[in-house]
Amino acid sequence: MEKKYVLITGASSGFGLLTTIELAKRGFSVIATMRNEEKKEKVIELCKQFQVEKQITCLQLDVTCKKSLQHLSEHLNQFPKIDILINNAGFAFGGFCEEVSLQEYKEQFETNFFGVIAVTQAVLPFMRKQKQGKIINLSSISGKIGFPGLSPYVASKHALEGWSECLRLEVKPFGIDVALIEPGSFATNIWSSGKRIAKKANNTNSPYDLYMKAIEDQLEKGKEEMGDPKEVASLIANICEQDRLKALRYPIGKGVKLAFYLKKWFPWTKWEQLFYKKLLHKKV
Ligand SMILES: NC(=O)c1ccc[n+]([C@@H]2O[C@H](COP(=O)([O-])OP(=O)(O)OC[C@H]3O[C@@H](n4cnc5c(N)ncnc54)[C@H](OP(=O)(O)O)[C@@H]3O)[C@@H](O)[C@H]2O)c1
């Protein structure tokens, strides 16, 4: 089999790290990019445990940094081709709409949305010349459904969904397929070290304080039900192995398909009632 080259962002932890290893195990050559070069050793160490270190090339890439993106563009020529791009880097920013500053919204979009656009624009010319390629974007259940207290993240993933639909329609004639992975909750760093909260949300005088506690209770309860991130890595690797991608969206995780079904077919008033009942245990 001809060697396939995959470029992945945010390979230092979570889905990115597990996908890197899974793809290397399946014979792909992985360009594992990460913003913090100090984490490279940990990644290589783990690859050695699976005897796949020869399949991996580590590159520094902060998807929000102009210089770093420039560096990526210069380095792409050293690879014979880029068959697959996995836009995985991201983080979750929480807070209530009234309290999240514009700057905080912008920071969320810089990584989760503009970062994806920048890396895709760097890679697309190579894929177009090759007349083949796959672009796999890590969206979320939050790309289809809004949750209170998570509007920066939800908005960034909704934007990613819309942009990916446009991209898919534009690049299909060049032999390039676009896919969106839509995970529910999985046990990675995103809910701990990766999570950031609006400065104002830490204020106990916030009018949304009670609401915040209900959400935190839900998140705490939900921890036990979080999926194993290896399932997502395995799904992404399966997609990478396919010839062409018929589907645009790949939902994964407990309750995700049901939630999408209810959101699509229930009238909004019913959907809202369900939401408040589950979150605040009362009618609003
Ligand atoms: N876990 C879930 O439940 C879940 C559900 C739905 C969607 N997702 C999506 O899955 C993707 C991966 O998240 P994860 O759950 O694996 O979380 P994670 O363990 O926190 O990993 C996130 C990765 O993104 C990297 N990153 C963040 N900002 C970056 C930047 N500016 N440039 C380059 N890399 C950056 C992080 O690097 P550092 O190590 O340097 O921080 C880390 O490697 C995200 O897009 C997330 O939105 C996750």
From TrEMBL:
InterPro entries: NAD(P)-bd_dom_sf, Sc_DH/Rdtase_CS, SDR_fam, SDR_oxidoreductase. PANTHER family: SHORT CHAIN DEHYDROGENASE, SHORT-CHAIN DEHYDROGENASE_REDUCTASE FAMILY PROTEIN. This is SDR family oxidoreductase. Gene3D superfamilies: NAD(P)-binding Rossmann-like Domain. GO terms for molecular function: oxidoreductase activity. Belongs to the short-chain dehydrogenases/reductases (SDR) family. It comes from Bacillus aquiflavi. It holds the Pfam family adh_short. NCBIfam families: PRK06914.1. Keywords: Oxidoreductase.
